[in-house]
Design goal:
Elements: H1 2-11, H2 16-37, H3 42-49, H4 51-64, H5 69-87, H6 93-96, H7 100-113, H8 120-128, H9 133-142, H10 144-174, H11 180-205, H12 209-213
Length: 230
């Protein structure tokens, strides 16, 4: 019995969120600070810290047999920051600012999509909540408040992403190099957390909270009484 449980545990796949946190968040920090502590220069350590996310993106693309947009964005940001380093001072500041190459275009793209047929935040939420696709499509087609809520949410996300980019740029060029990677990661989590209350408030104010998030009530078992003729 114990052996069967052990085999099941070994065959159980790693949850995507755990894998993402390990390879895209923890591993880059561990690589950078580990190499930094060993005396490796800032630029080589920063370049090495980009390897785990790139490998993760490549693995995900091969496994799913399609290009991963996030992985491509990380690759593009790394290459652009490396090019800026080579063309600029040759120091680590351009590499520290590579997050700007991700958040700034995302913010502009998000704002530009706010008044298109499907704002980006609506499209992304629809893709990550497959169980809600039917109700989201129905509300989008019939409820103007629902559409207005998602356009407002998209504008908020775009504006905050641009503010996030500006803050990352300031950190990259003003703070000590050793502080920036961990603060950059902390800023990512802080930005995501800060965006949740206005997002949920907009949906609540639109009056669609229950349709989107309320749990369906369990159907009570009906008792059928059969009279037997005797």
């Amino acid at each position: 019995m114990w052996g069967e449980r052990g085999a099941m545990a070994e065959n159980r796949p790693v949850p995507p969120l755990v894998r993402t946190l390990a390879l895209d968040v923890a591993a880059p920090l561990a690589v950078f600070y580990g190499l930094h502590a060993a005396g490796v220069g800032d630029v080589p350590a920063l370049l090495a810290s980009a390897v785990p996310p790139l490998l993760h993106a490549g693995y995900s693309g091969l496994r799913e047999r399609r290009a991963d947009p996030i992985g491509l964005a990380v690759l593009a940001a790394t290459l652009l920051s490396l090019l800026a380093t080579l063309l600029g001072s040759g120091g680590p500041r351009e590499l520290l600012a590579r997050g700007v190459w991700l958040t700034a275009p995302f913010g502009l793209w998000t704002l530009a999509s706010a008044f298109t047929r499907h704002p980006l935040c609506f499209a992304v939420s629809r893709s990550v909540m497959p169980g809600k696709v039917e109700v989201m499509d129905r509300l989008w087609a019939t409820d103007a408040r629902f559409r207005r809520a998602w356009r407002t949410i998209t504008i908020i996300w775009g504006a905050v992403s641009l503010a996030d980019s500006a803050l990352r740029l300031v950190m990259a060029y003003t703070l000590p190099v050793a502080w920036v990677p961990v603060l950059d990661t902390a800023l990512t989590f802080a930005t995501i957390v800060a965006l949740q209350p206005p997002t949920l408030f907009c949906l609540w104010r639109a009056g669609v909270w229950n349709e989107l998030f309320a749990r369906p009530r369990p159907v009570e078992n009906e008792v059928v009484v059969i009279n037997k003729a005797g």
